[in-house]
Amino acid sequence: MFSITSSRMRSVDANCSYLGLSPVQLMENAGSAIAREITSRMSSGKVLFVSGRGNNGGDAFVAARHLALNDAFDVRVILLGHSSRIRTEESMHNFSLLAYSGIIEVREISDSKELESYPGWKDADIIVDGVLGSGIKGSPREPESTAIDLINSSGSYIVSIDSPSGYDLDGGEVSKSVFADMTITFHRMKTGLELPECEKYTGKVKVAPIGVCRDAEEYVGPGDLMNLARREQHAHKGNSGRVLVIGGGAYYGAPALAAMAALRTGADIVTVAVPENVADTVASFSSNLIVVPLSGNRLNPENVPVLKGLIESHDVAVVGPGIGRDPLTLDTVRQLLPLCKKAVIDADALYDLILPVKSEGKFILTPHSAEFARLSGVAVPHNLTEKKQILSQFGGENGVIVVLKGKVDIISDGQNVRLNRTGNAGMTVGGTGDVLTGITGALFAVNDAMDAASCAVFISGAAGDLAFDEKGFGLLATDIIDRIADVISEVY
Question: How confident is the model at residue 492, as a pLDDT?
Answer without folding.
Answer: 64
